[in-house]
Write a structure and sequence with these properties.
The structure holds two protein chains of two kinds.
Chain A lengths: L4 H8 L29 E6 L3 E3 L14 E4 L7 E3 L7 H5 L7 H9 L5 E2 L2 E4 L7 H18 L4 E5 L2
Parallel strand pairs in A: 1-5, 1-6, 1-7
Antiparallel strand pairs in A: 2-4, 3-6
Chain B lengths: L4 H7 L3 E6 L12 H14 L8 E8 L10 H4 L3 H7 L6
Parallel strand pairs in B: 1-2
């Protein structure tokens, strides 16, 4: 059975008051129909697992809303991981566990997807402030996706 | 991608694909290239079945793994004991 994370994390952080998780169930769901097959789409990878490139500033752990832009042809040996909210050992060993860029490169090479956007976007998933996510993190992501004319944004949380 | 089904059901993204894997292995385990391919390619293949906003498609993949004490990882993940072993705090 899948874990129910909302009660599980409430128990984990007791006696702190329960975290107020995002709940959009009373709101309409945004929807952009697919206008072409994904085999013709330009795809960008986005990941919240704290992946960055050696030489970039590592993520910090207190509502870090910054974005790292990673070239889609980056050398995987240069990838690093900084995150407090999940066990990072597997991601350090193989970033594809949370940042499956090598798998997407294969899909571009065999034309399963149209192409990869030049830039992948990474950030820190452990942002407790929903307002900070909406107001500081998301706008530059949207700007970058529009600038690279991305059709499909594949988001991997961690 | 989603590994936290209850969180995703509350957030309601337009399209989601669920695998019953631990956080930190959303797209598979290290070096398990075939497994990573199955998840990532499965996510894209599921797009065609997502005709309604809020679709969550379960790829039907459950990781069979054990916690260090032999329990199923589902019972152990994100407990206080797990946190002591595997997670940093916000203070580092």
């Amino acid at each position: 059975m899948p874990i129910d994370y909302i009660p599980r994390t409430r128990e984990l952080y007791e006696p702190l008051p329960p975290y107020r998780w995002t709940d959009n169930r009373a709101l309409p769901i945004p929807w952009a129909p697919m206008t072409k097959p994904f085999g013709a789409c330009r795809v960008a990878l986005g990941a919240s697992g704290g992946v960055y490139v050696d030489g970039q500033e590592p993520f910090h752990f207190k509502d870090d809303t910054s974005l790292r832009k990673i070239s889609s042809d980056v050398d995987f040996a240069r990838l690093r991981v900084a995150h407090f909210g999940y066990p990072i050992g597997d991601a350090v060993e193989d970033p594809n566990c949370v940042f499956p860029l090598e798998r997407l490169r294969e899909m571009a090479a065999d034309h399963t997807i149209g192409e990869l956007a030049p830039t992948a976007l990474t950030f820190m998933g452990g942002i407790y402030s929903q307002r900070a996510v909406r107001e500081a993190l998301i706008p530059p992501i949207i700007e970058q996706l529009r600038a690279e004319r991305v059709d499909l944004f594949y988001l991997v949380p961690a | 991608m989603s590994v936290g089904r209850d969180i995703t059901e509350a957030v309601r993204p337009p399209r989601a694909v669920f695998v019953d894997y631990p956080m930190g292995n959303e797209t598979g385990r290290p070096g398990c290239v075939d497994e990573q391919r199955t998840i990532v390619r499965g996510a894209f293949a599921a797009l065609e079945r997502m005709t309604e906003p809020g679709s969550i498609i379960d790829l039907g993949m459950t990781l069979a793994a054990q916690a260090p004490d032999g329990r199923d990882w589902h019972e152990w993940s994100y407990t206080k004991d797990f946190r002591r072993h595997f997670m940093k705090t916000r203070e580092g």
